[in-house]
Fold these 3 entries.
Entry 1:
Amino acid sequence: MVWMSRTCFRKYGNFVDNLRLYVRGGSGGMGLPRLGGQGGKGGDVLVVAKKEITLKKIKAKYPLKRFVAGVGMNSSVRALKGEKGPDQQILAPTGVTVTTDNGKVLGELNVEGDSVLVARGGQGGSFHSGFQPSQGQSKHIRLDLKLIADLGLVGFPNAGKSSLLKALSHAKPQIASYAFTTLRPEIGQVMYEDFKQISVADLPGLIEGAHMNKGMGHKFLKHVERTKQLLFVVDVCGFQLASNTAFRSAFEAVQLLTKELELYKEEILSKRAVLVVNKMDLPDAEDRLAELLEQLNNPDEFFHLLPEDMVPRKNILFRDVVPISAATGLGIQRLRTCMRQSLDEDAAGGADPLHRDRLQALRGAVTAQDATSWGSPPSV
């Protein structure tokens, strides 16, 4: 029995995934010239990862988006060395990259408790500074949320990603015949019988030119960066975004998706990937699948079907090609098992031969089980 819980956001317009803040470290305390006393250091400003926090909550709670640490204590007769000023903590969600306005990365928040120092407090007054304190650092920073998930669903609009999520989870995402139904990022947790959990991110559909920030553009692509592996989802019969755009076959869709990722950030294509061929319940789907597999095995012979500037520089090698019908449920169990195997293999890395043999045996058992309904589609 496999189930999936889903966490989603009400609508993309209310989902905040980037926030600009002003931060300033506290000023140091005054030194005491008469007795050579040293003022306390100003407090620091840190961004700290915490559960149950969202960028939207930060924006609502701190409308001025201004964070200033405490001032260091002055040196006095009773305390020649002044106490450090209190730090200012900005609680933020995991999955955030902290950058400066010019794009310099200050740090990342990957797990709860991670922290990034964003503004240092000033030094207290001392003999070396003529007992005059210095001011703390001040700057604008950006909190850029990139969802963390094991698997990211990558596909053009209407490829059936929402239907696939429903088939995996028995949930009720918005599904319709028009192109853009997923307008918000969603993350689900798939649990297996041994209590292993896999997170799957369903993200807004790409369009051609997404790398140039067309459509949802970078709002989609940046979240792909934080997934361990990719699940390409294509319609076996191809798709056409609008009446004034070109029809794209399943093979063309795969190559265009690859090119969009390549143009945005080429290292994304180093992730392990599985190709999910959806809508196998449609007429002529078996013939279309056979055609797609032939094209994927000999891509150079079919690149002339694409615009020259949209041909990927490197062919993506899929670990598996899994035909499914999200509408009827056929192939879903094989996909679940494939997801688990792929992540386990990544985690094992150069694992011992016994572990690899077990993975291979599991793959063979699942392939044999599915042969009655789908045959055994080859890996590409």
Entry 2:
Amino acid sequence: MRFVQRMKGVWKCVRFLPVVLCVLYFVSPSLKYFVKYIHMERCSLKSAKDLILDNRVDASLDLVSRDDVQTCTYWRAPIIWEGMFDPEIYDETHKKKGSSVALVVFAVGRYLDAYLNTFLNSSERYFMLDLPVTYYVFTDRPAKVPPLKLPPHRSMKVMKVEKHARWQDISMMRMKTISDAIETDIKHRCTYVFCFDVDQEFTGRFGSEALGDSVALLHTYFFNLPKMLYTYDHNPKSKAYMETGDLYYHAAVFGGTWESVKALVDACHQGIMEDKRNRVEALWHDESHLNKYLWIHKPSRVLSPEYCWDPLSGKNSVVQVQRLVWAPKQYKKLRAP
């Protein structure tokens, strides 16, 4: 019995070791000093013509223009950074294709009052400006959604959702809501879907270069760290369990064609519900399940941290543009019962 208890204690330590190491990294100046000398991997391709090319315009990407960062993955997906692309070429290509985008955002409880107005107004200044966009705002208080003056090619649909008691459940259960919206409405209107957390603000172009079949985002706090610090879920009882992975993705932004996004959210919802039946909760909730899915089903396009940056993390020379930034977090106030 003592041996079993001891082994359980050891397992708990192993499971949470990456989290502990991350905490040490963020609070220890000396550890940060050494980690900064661990260089990111580099793209092994010399020409963008060797990429997956889920869009022909990707052949125009300049993979060697940024020798300070990783511009492609080993499975030949581009990682989009400032200086790699010509925005006009991308915009013209997608306009000719007739691309259209659904922007999905949840504003439940106090998050509506704190963030939604800034999020929506900033998106009108920077998000996919040359393309038709439909905003899908999911909230428990539709009457409180601020009015938004929109041009003819952009529209907004406000849809009511249930407010769960725990913020973790709000975060996780959005997967089923997104799937239902795609099936009943989005797939009949839009070719692409992008899902965002509401506590963010657009501060620069977030354009058609971000569109692809399956789109993931490198996390601000992990993109230049060694894999041993990635906080995947290491509990084998969870469907989000991963021993290791390729990259660490942030669930605050993900997208793709409506077909690929539906496949992702359906798989994540299934994993979350299986965990609930087994009385398990993944370490980082829906983000853990998203990372598991994208490890098995590789994204065809990866966005650099330019596309979702936390200003509190400080300046980083490789992040030349901040296109979307984290708003100041008010967790104690917003997540209070």
Entry 3:
Amino acid sequence: MESVRLLRLTSRVWLHKFALVFLTIVFLTLIFKALKSSKQTASQNVSNERYDGEKDDEDEHGLAEATSSENYGVCQQPNEVGNMFQEWSKTNQTPLIIITPTYERSEQTAELTRLSQTLQLLIWAQMPLIWIIAHDSRVCHENVRALIDRKLGSNPFGNRFDEAQKNYNRPLVGTRLPVTILSAPMPSAFRDPERVRRFGLPRGVAGRRAALSWLIKHTRANDPGVIYFADDDNVYDLEVFEEISKTHRLSMFPVGLLQPSGVRGPIVDVHGRVIGFLGGRRPFRMFPVDMAGFAFSLALLHQKRPLMPFRATMEEEGFLRALGVDYGGIEPLANNCTRILVWHTMTAAPQVNSFQIPNPSGYSDTNLPLLAQNMVEQGLIKAAKGWFSHDIPTCLGQTCYT
């Protein structure tokens, strides 16, 4: 009897000890979570303070008034844009809305050619798509429109491809890629040399803002669609567009060839949740991502009406904050951000000398006049009046050579 009583007493003692240890663990866990949450909040507050401080610094220069409204012109757009989105809404596919800002430079033709033919492959695969090109110019440039029309308006493979189609039950070439071309000049305030020296040149911001304004005007809040900023100096695996089409509100994925680590994108835990970012240089950013590393829904655009700031290196940060998302709302794509399907190649301007046309009296029957004319059309050279004369200099890019 005494031994039974002793056993019960011992059991109670161990039970009390176990309960005490359990309660201690729970208490310490709660304290740890509270400290972690407080640290994240403080870090985010510091981030907000620094970011807000930079925005205030912009306002001191009187730039808020300069960007209070969008200034763009429509050079070309598909007929009945609204009907196009309504037709897409009747299908189970999500249309992709590709926005590409561009500006005049010697490599512009080469890069737009690469991107246009990449997107044409998606059309051939019968993926719903619209491409918005926003040119940094006050007027519509005929060479850009002509380039896109030439690359997308006809079958580049000619009879060879026409013959190949006979072996298939459906055409290999789909409908024409719908293209909108806008003229969207950067406000002159942001080209001020002193401001550029201090803050950098916010290249592409005016174009992206103009494209988003055009979308809001021509679409409805319940229209389907996923928006992606596809700069023309990147290289895209076709699979990245299939991944983007899975976006519900805001998705992210890695971008390769970015300093300092060679990649930039989300860090994802085993549960598929974004817990941080890789490759960011500025610790106070909430979203140290590349412009090509995220996509968002058309519905989210209509809901938030975000504006991208005219601030070099802070465009992505300001825009994503304007979307009002946090880490929990990010959808990691590309197999939980383990694959790189887009590369920020940043084509460098070629270092070449001037191209001088010899005296046409001795070369009029050669290929040189037509070759030079094609170079002008592609933006490789700019010619002054009378440029066929050997003593008239040509202009390469923005620089004239004698």
